[in-house]
Amino acid sequence: MMYRVYYVVRTIDQVQIALDRLQEANIGTNRVHVMANNNAELTSRGIQATTPWEDTNIMNTGFFWAFVGAIIGLLVGWALTGIDPWGIDIGFGGVVLSVLFFGAHGAWAGGIRGISHTNYHLKPYLHDLKRGCYLIMVDVDFKEEHDRVHHVLDHALKADRQDDDTRYNPML
Fold this sequence. Notes:
This protein is α+β, with helices and mostly antiparallel strands. It folds into two domains: 2-55 and 119-168, Alpha-Beta Plaits (2-Layer Sandwich), CATH 3.30.70.260; 58-115, no CATH class. The protein is built from seven helices and four strands, in the order E-H-E-H-H-H-H-H-E-H-E. Helix 1 (12-24) crosses helix 7 (143-156) and helix 4 packs antiparallel against helix 5. The chain is elongated, with a radius of gyration of 22 Å. It starts with a strand and ends with a strand.
């Protein structure tokens, strides 16, 4: 099970304090992402800002529609082997080709839809971001790390808001 811890803070200095404390606690900065109204400010300070993979629904809609497309491709391929429309035996290779074609098309269509929508994990924080706050997200694998993140950041930050996602999965 993966955990994601969210902290909303008002200043970039609070973000830097959080990153320093997490590094002192041996929680790698590769597990920390920060989102702001303007990610260029974060990048200019060397802070790992979120990417479109985290900002949008591209991952989950892409994977979901790839799966749907593959199922459709399986049905189409199976139907084509049964009706034999071109007078040649399509066989297993035709089914595989159909699954790949429809699966790739589903992933593409899902990705197009997903990139135009904000990640649903982040929707509760959009109002805070528009007010100029910063969202700190820390991904951890174990309950002990989760508790350690809280121990470190609860004492170091003056957070406006703090939440947990105890069943976080980047694919869903």
